[in-house]
Structure formats: C-alpha cells, structure tokens
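Section: Multi-chain targets

For targets with more than one molecule, the full set of components is provided together so that the structure can be written out for the assembly as a whole rather than chain by chain. Components appear in the order listed by the source. The example entry contains two components.
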Amino acid sequence: MNEELLAAYEETKSLGLKLNMARGKPGSDQLELSSEILGVLENPVAEDGTDCCNYGVLDGLPEAKRLMAIMLDDDPENVFVGGNASLTLMYDTIARFHSFGSLGSTPWCTLEAVKWICPVPGYDRHVAITEAFGYEMIPVTMNENGPDMDEVERLAASDASVKGIWCVPKYSNPSGITYSDETVRRLAQMECAANDFRIVWDNAYCIHHLYDDPSQQDAVIDIAAACKEAGNPNRYVKFASTSKVTLPGAGVSAFAASPENMDEARMRIGVQAIGHDKLNQLRHVRFLRDEKGLAAHMAKHAAILRPKFELVLSKLEEGLGHVEGCTWTAPRGGYFISLDVPEGCARRTVELCKDAGVVLTGAGATWPYGNDPKDSNIRIAPTLPPLGELDQAMDVLVLCVKLAAAEKGLLA
Amino acid sequence: MNEELLAAYEETKSLGLKLNMARGKPGSDQLELSSEILGVLENPVAEDGTDCCNYGVLDGLPEAKRLMAIMLDDDPENVFVGGNASLTLMYDTIARFHSFGSLGSTPWCTLEAVKWICPVPGYDRHVAITEAFGYEMIPVTMNENGPDMDEVERLAASDASVKGIWCVPKYSNPSGITYSDETVRRLAQMECAANDFRIVWDNAYCIHHLYDDPSQQDAVIDIAAACKEAGNPNRYVKFASTSKVTLPGAGVSAFAASPENMDEARMRIGVQAIGHDKLNQLRHVRFLRDEKGLAAHMAKHAAILRPKFELVLSKLEEGLGHVEGCTWTAPRGGYFISLDVPEGCARRTVELCKDAGVVLTGAGATWPYGNDPKDSNIRIAPTLPPLGELDQAMDVLVLCVKLAAAEKGLLA
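Its structure, encoded as tokens over all components, is:
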C-alpha cells in the first residue's frame, strides 16, 4: 500500500503543479461579478448632498450605513462604516480597549494579565491580533453548535482577566459551523467576572450562503438583541465587510455596537480619522442597492462556489471516507471546509502537498500560537482555484493524507 | 470708533451670511481637477500582474510606492502605502509605540509619564492624538525657521520621558513657515535622553506650492538623510498623502521610515490589515503618473489657491495693517495663514465672526489642550470658499478683530 501511494505521489510531483488552497480568496470569476462597481460614480454626491470627494463624515454616509446594517442585522444608527477591511476594525477595537479601556474600565495595557477565549479550530488572523497584544489565549473546542459553552461559561465566570472571545457565528472559519440559538443566548447571558468582557462577533459570512433555498441556509440570532435582552447590552461588537461580496482589494467594512459603545468608539476614532473613503461607500451603495440587490448578488457567488464545495466533499468522501481518523465538515456557506486527519499527520500532509505543488493553509494555523496539540486540523480553502485545478489539488491532498497516515502506520 | 464698528457689525449680521473658513478643505473647483481619476480603471491589474481587486499586497503596489516616494522624498523600498488618510497612519504609528514600544524599547503605555513637544501654533488634529494617549504636551514656540530649537534641544536632552515632536516641516499648519536647513539638522543631531525619541514628520504640504517659479517655492531638506548622517537613522517617520492633491474623500496616504523602523511597522501592520485599497492606489498612479504629472497637477491647484491667499493677505494689510498687535504670516504654500490678534482678543473675534455667519477654526485650536495662553492666534483657512465669499468673509473677520480689540480698549 505504502509503495503504491509513494509511486502515485512521485508521479504527482512530476506534474509540477502550482495550486493554491491556502487562503479564503475569491476566484477571478467571482471578482468579475463586481466589475461594474468601478463605473458607477458619474455623480459622486450622497443622498444628503455631501460631496463625497471632500473631507468629512466620520462614521459613514447614511446610505452606506443602511446597506451595512443589512449585513450586520442592526439599525443604521448603530453602524459605523470603515475602510477596506473589517480585520482593521477588529484590531482597532481591541487596540482601543487595550490603550483606553471600555466605558470607564481599566485600560487593558495596564493589567497584569489579559486572557482571551479562542474557539478552535478558528481564524488565524483573529488569534494573531490577541497574540500581538500579548494576551494569554485559551483554546475552547468548537462543536456542532459553536464553542463548548460549558467551558466558555466556566472561563468567563471564574477569572476577571478573561476579557473576551473571538466568534465567527455563521459558517465559521474554518469549520463552517453556525452557532445555535442556545449558544448565542448563553454567550449573551453568561456571568462574566470582567465587567468589560467583549464578544468580538465577526459575522464575515453573514450572507455567504451556498444554497439559494432558505431551508438550506443557516441562520443565527442577533447577538445585539440577545445581549440587550439579557441585560448585558454592551457586551458585543459586531463586524462585517463586503470583502467577499464585491472586491477584497477595495471593499467596505463596518461594525455595529450598542449606543454607549458606539458613542465611545466614534469619539476615539474621531482622533484617528476624519472620514473613511466615501467614494467607495457610494460605489457599494449604487452597485448593491438594498437587501434584494445583496441577495441577488450573493446568489451569483453561490452559483460559482457551490460546485467547488460539492467537489471537495465528494473527493473527501471518495478518497478518505474509509480512512480511520479522517472527518470533515460539510458547511452550507462560508469559505472553508475543516478537515481532521489522523493525529500527528496534519503537518506532514501539508508538507507533502507543498512538495507536490499544492499550497494549503499551514497546519496549526487554526490554533492559537499555531499550535494544534493533536496536529490533525487542516483548513481547506476551495474558492480561489478554478474547478479543474481544484479537482487536481484535492486528488493531491487526498493522496498526501493517506501517505502521511501510512508513514505513521496509521493506514489500515 | 466703537460706535462705527458696532454699526458695521450689525449691518454685517443682518446679511445672514453663511461662510466657512474653519478647516483646510479644498474648494469644489479643486476637486474637479481630479474628476478623471474616477474613470481610469478599465484594467485593474498592477504592473507586476497583481489583480488589484483581490486580497493582498500589505505595503502597497510597487508603482504606488514609487509615486508616494516622490512626495516623501525617499526610496520606494522605504515607503508604505496606506488607506485614505495620513492622519490614521500617524495615529497608528503612535498607537504602536504606545502598545509595543519601538525597536525593543519599553512600550510607552507602561511608562509613568510620556511627554511630547508640540510646536505652537500647530495642527489641532496632531495634538488631539497625543492628548488622547494621555501624553503631557509641551508647547514650543515656532519662529520663522521652525520650532525654537534651543528649547527643543533642552527638552529632548534633559528628560527621557520626552518621546517625540510633531513637525509640519513645509508650509506648516497653520503658520506656513518652512523649517530651515539648520532646524532640520539640529533635530536630526540633537542629543535625546530617550533612545526611542521620534520625530513625526508630517510633510502634508510637500508639493503644495502657491507659485510655479522655483525661486518662490520653499524647500526643506530631507529628515531621513539628515538623521542618517547624524547617526540617528531611526529617529524619524515621514508622512504624506494625496488628500490635498486629488480627493480628500478618497485619497492615498503613505509613510516612509528607516529600514529597521519599516520592518517593524510592516510586521505589526501585518496583524492589522491584509492590504489597503489597491484599486485606489492604481487610480492615483494612472492619474498622476510621475513627478512631472504631480507637478503639473499641483500647478493647477496653485492657480486656484494663489488668488485666495493673495486676497486674504491684501485684506489683512488693508484692514489690520495699522492695528497694533496684529501680525500674520505670508506663506508661499500650504493651506493656512496664521493671524495673531491683540492679546485676549482671539476667542472674542471668533465668536463675533460666528454670530455674523462666518465660521473660523476655534480660537486656541492651534495649541495643546485648546489653550492659547495669550488668546491671540487665529488660523485662517482660505481654500474652501469661492473667491467672492472669501472676500466677504475676510471683511467680516477684519471688522470683528477691530471690534474685539475696541471692546478691550486696545484699538488706538
């Protein structure tokens, strides 16, 4: 068996492939869906008469707030529209808490220790932020309803230095899991030893369904409403962006927060900026229009992405369905599929793939400090390669998983 | 005299004017100079083949670095191209020093005290940043060659908690003064008690001349070269933006730093962002092209702004030339004229103007904490109003200065 796999691997290597499944990048056909957005500014004046070419409007054009409020499932007055990346808004949010505290709390930079709950597997760029600020990151296992809430509740209640949690509530990165209503309510209601505990609610895939039929789409209840109802109205900050709606290279980001949190954020951001790119806000409003326009546009993305996800799932089933220790998720939206390979085989698989010309997200990247203790999780990002290349890349991945398992004597 | 002034003031008030000279905003005719920039992206691919619609390129497209290197007077490899505002880049730079220190120094947020040198009059948004971080701001008087260097040297050498200085080296905001070569060299050479002392070099008006004839343009020597020569290669960070070149609502910002500072900045910003708006970078490159294109474009701005500055100066000369205690600057570039009125009259003048329908920058705004101890400095921002409105607004301003002085018995 090992011989056969090795032969197949050498043959694959000889093909000189150059395939990349490392990052959740849209494919070029997806980018073309938005090409018209570059030419919609004949009259760069907002609905209230603002000349979008000039300075001003710190928190976003009214019509841009309305648009982003749809994605954020909130009222436009609770929305702040930012620049190109919600990642920057998230970093800035934590940087503000770090330097200034939140609603009168002690600035986190002056505390002995700050700890942060990191659902695993999770998004590598999230944990990079909390790592940069020197916070102690505590991994909590994701299950099919979101993070293990017994553990989250225990951590939040028992230690005032636990200041927050990263959440991708819908079509989570990388597992594709969507938080259950109970998970959202428990996050909103739980006792927190820190009165400035914050849920960073990165709803990156809020409208990124793979299927048009609503019965095949995931829904997540609104964290803002849940927090308000639970009497913890300032516990969350919600984020979204058009990076994977229009153009990742020139999108619009936004966050929503409670009136108190928003007042404070606006006051502090007013020192940092005069206003974000209003012309790009206007482009997005004119191109996407409203809820219906957004849904119609996302249906076009789904038509491109659905066959890619279905191909990955069928390749996994066909190639690894009978390999012990291999499991994966089957998301109904988002950008990723999470693959667990036999323990101790993830790094080796990624290495074998790389040597055969297929670049995957680094093994361990889905864990704080890049340290997956079981060395088993691999994030599959199927969106960038065209379908034909994805087909090849998945064959290589399946082969390399088997080879890595065989090397360890784990292949039955 | 007082009677006559009062009568004139009441008459002016009855006109119901609505004029604004508060901020350094370009006029709508200046914005029209760049209207073509909105339509130059038929092929949104960079010279190295990068699809600017997709993710990536943290520190800027190569051609955008080249363009901004012209404004920053530096090599493209020392340039980082950011988003819409250099203000945000400056805030972020200080925020990084605050949270992480610089090149191994102690993070400023953990220090007992941080002090900052603020040349006065200065830019209100600069001092708002150092105020937000809780730094003690020390005003140092600007003279015709830049800040009083004897005082700056004394402060920097004597106290390790003095961590930096705000500088607008050319056509300074609001005085229009340009730093002399000696000032720049002394800043680069001076002994600093803090080894992480930083010169924040906001070269906002680097190419913003009012006159095309080079003999009528100010020049400032490069702080990077001066610091390197002085053996203090990491002392500065330089900033510039196209806000007042193309569109303030959708410009491109950039900073330049020593290789060591840049490596650290890139590493830290890599946690905050995946890449700034590359399409807007490409628009700027295609619209402005190169040094010649930049100069030709700025000459068009100068043609619009020159008559405005000349009008303000002639109105001041005519109306206040014989009023004791009134002095003003006559800049050859930039966006502002700095007016000193008799002591104790600035706030009252601004108030009188406001009641007569002319909005000026708040008195005191050019000082740390908004506190001008002599209450005498007023920043005139003549760029936004059309020439006819500016004419009216200056008449009101002159009248109100006289009235405020008369109220105090200071008018001869």
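Residues 291-320 of chain A form the longest helix (30 residues).
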